[in-house]
Amino acid sequence: MDLRTFMDFVRRNSPREYLQVDTPLSAGWELAAVVERLRQKMRAPLIHFSRVNDCDFPVATNICSSWPRVAKSLGISMLQLEQRLLAAYKNPIAPLQHRQAGRAPVRQHVYRGAQLDLSVLPAIRYTRAETAPYISAACAVARDPDSGAFNLSYHRLMFVDRRRLAIYMTPNCHLQQIFFNNRARQCPTPLAVFIGAHPLWSLGALAAGGLDCDEFGIIGGLLGQPLAVTPGLIEPRLAVPAAAEFVLEGSISHCAEVMEGPYGEGLGYRAERTRQPVFEVELLSMRDRAIYQDIVPGGMEHLNMTGLALRLYLQQALPERFRFIRDLHLPAALTLYICVQAPQPAGVLEQMMRRILTGQRFIKHVAVFDADIDIRNPQQVGLALATRVQADRDLLVLAGQSGNGIDPSECDQVTAKWGIDATLKRNDRGYPIKNTLPADVLEKIDLEKILHP
Predict the structure, then answer these.
(1) For residues 194 and 302, is the Cβ–Cβ distance under 8 A?
(2) CATH 3.40.1670.10 describes domain 322-422
(3) What are the C-alpha distances in Å from 386 to residues 151, 341, 389?
(4) Is 249 helix (H, G, I), strand (E, B) or coil?
(5) How far apart, in whole angstroms, are the C-alpha atoms of residue 364 and residue 415?
(6) For 115-127, how does the pLDDT look when each residue is reduced to its tens digit (9 = 90+)?
């Protein structure tokens, strides 16, 4: 399974979800404008731009904009896809080296030295904010010098010149930890970046967990077989998917920095210019007739990619620690709703919220509800917040927490987080009693007979 097989499946089996655009368009905003106009119509089809001005490569976007579409390509339901990811966390399948590493598809064309020129890639712009083009669908592969663990993660890359890219690493992310570990040794960080991935590769690369989380293994678990990889040509201890479309190899300098940004980030606000490390590229390789994958930041695909992996990780990890959790829901960015069995002993819910808020950098707000509240129903959630919360008693505020770098309200990557206990509380007369009809009367009412006698 690779990007091409997935695109071909959607084209053949879900033609209404596949849009091929043959009109020549500019990478400077016009591709993103097509995605935005479709989003305004609540549509997110897989888009294949066959002709991009000043570029030899077609561009594909919205690859991960619909997980049900991905599940359909596997012949399974959305629920089964979620179950497969949960199983992959527990039973990862290690990658397997491609049987002819030197002839892996992504090594069909290799450029280095004087032949290397990053300007051959599409110079894509997304909003009025950017002053330089970006690579947005780059999955980075690094290796921790202390533990030897691999890490896969997505990071934005800004074009600097024909051989250099500025890399923005989310504060406190695993790649940044690896970078800091190398920088403490005055060493660059070897890095390989692949572009053009099957959506299951992306889902596995976004798996939540510690630095020891084996994303290659989780990808294998999702595929049901080992992912075929090929070793790095610059750093052989790294590995990249053998059937990726493009690979960039080199290292993150431990000392060189450039101004990076502005950038139209995922939450819809502009990330300002800051000094960021430089990814010094030494090699570019690609497949025959390579397809360049793009992700429009802040679009439906961008938000869809991160939400599923985080929710399923929390669904697996939190109930193991807090067995009274019944359900979880991520209704918006940085927000988590939890349904619990009530009542709980004093202090237990605060302890849970504190643990989540300090442990998850992409969760800023937690609200906890009783089992009688449908946490996917905004009206019920709003009523619970209005009638079961006293702010001076039920609000937990944690100042001075590490931010995530994409929240515009942060100050110097420091944020305040909060939790709300919206469960019923005992008063002098016990717990408030909700209005109900007699159950036997409600059971006897047959609407069909009454409305259609």
Answers:
(1) no
(2) yes
(3) 43, 20, 6
(4) strand
(5) 8
(6) 999 999 999 999 8
* Same-fold call for 70-295 versus 322-422: no
1 touches 194 (CB < 8 A): no
Residue carrying the six token digits 């450029």 = 111
* Tokens 């083009």, residue located: 133
Q: Rg (Cα) of the chain, in Å, rounded?
A: 24
- Contacts of 159 by beta carbon, 8 Å cutoff, 6+ apart: 118, 119, 123, 132, 133, 134, 135, 165
DSSP reduced 3-state for 23: coil
pLDDT tens string 243-294 = 999 999 999 999 999 999 888 776 667 778 899 999 999 999 999 999 999 9
In the chain, domain spans: 70-295, 322-422
Contacts with 348 (C-beta within 8 Å, 6 or more apart), sequence order = 324
Question: By the 8 A CB rule, do 120 and 248 touch?
Answer: no
* Dihedral sign computed on CA atoms, order 248, 250, 252, 253: negative
pLDDT at 155 over 70: yes
Domain covering 70-295 in this structure, CATH number:
2.30.110.10
Element (H, E) at 309: helix 300-321
For the cut 90, the answer to whether the pLDDT of residue 233 exceeds it is: yes
**Spatial contact of 325 and 370, defined as CB atoms under 8 Å apart:** no
